[in-house]
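2024-03-11 09:14:02 INFO worker-7 job=invfold-0412 stage=load source=structure_tokens
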């Protein structure tokens, strides 16, 4: 018999942080050149993707306001 999976529920702060990470990802991804976008998608564990993840983390965890164009949020 297998153990039941534990469902993790996010509180308000966790949801807010997840939304900030998503907004930061979209803002930075679409600001990159097409070649870098393609490289990040094709090699998600590569050097460019790792550098991109660091940039996203820095922006998401900073107190700076993140503006995303379009109707995402």
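2024-03-11 09:14:09 INFO worker-7 stage=emit residues=73
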């Amino acid at each position: 018999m297998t153990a039941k999976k534990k469902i993790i529920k996010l509180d308000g702060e966790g949801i807010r942080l997840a939304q900030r990470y998503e907004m930061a990802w979209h803002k930075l991804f679409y600001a990159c050149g097409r070649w870098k976008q393609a490289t990040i998608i094709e090699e998600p564990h590569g050097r460019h993707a790792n550098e991109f993840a660091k940039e996203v983390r820095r922006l998401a965890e900073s107190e700076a306001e993140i503006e995303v164009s379009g109707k995402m949020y």
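2024-03-11 09:14:09 INFO worker-7 stage=report msg="The radius of gyration is 15 Å."
2024-03-11 09:14:10 INFO worker-7 job finished
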